[in-house]
Amino acid sequence: MTIINELAFDFDVEEDDFNLEATLDGMWVCRALGTREGDRLRLEDMQVRPDVEVPKALLKQVGTLRGNKIGTEVLRRFLRRADAEGVREIFGSVTQKDIEENRDLLGWYRREGFEVTVPDGDCLDHAGHKIVRRR
User: Contact, 94 vs 57, CB < 8 A?
Assistant: First the structure.
């Protein structure tokens, strides 16, 4: 259990892949899903659960999931695990829809050590940006 902004989160890691999930009162609230490709790691999805999907009783306790630093904590744990396992590059796609949902998303990735570039063959067809972190 980890306390973040006075809330008690549990973190579950699936040992056979790079999926990391934070739960609050038994419900997943944030997750990072990754696929290893040799010494590279594709960040398939990084998601904070939308407030509309959270029970009202839990929202009364939390207020809102965004802005509670849970996404930052999940991403940092994901990155630490990747570093510990010798991953040299982490990459993923950011879509325009992602940016519309979180206007600071590209800045957030930059603050966490990612470079924001133009999409390439590694990216989703509808990607607006590629994020990449190299070690």
Answer: no
pTM value?
Answer: 0.82
Backbone region of residue 112 per phi and psi (left: phi > 0; alpha: psi in -120 to 50; beta: other values): alpha
Q: Compute φ and ψ for 57, nearest 5 degrees.
A: -65, -40
C-beta separation of 43 from 90 below 8 A:
yes
| pLDDT confidence band for 123 (50 / 70 / 90) | very high
Q: Which domains occur in the chain, in start order?
A: 1-87 (3.40.630), 89-135 (no CATH)
Structure tokens at 130: 């590629």
Among all chains, which residue has been given the structure tokens 């570039």? 117
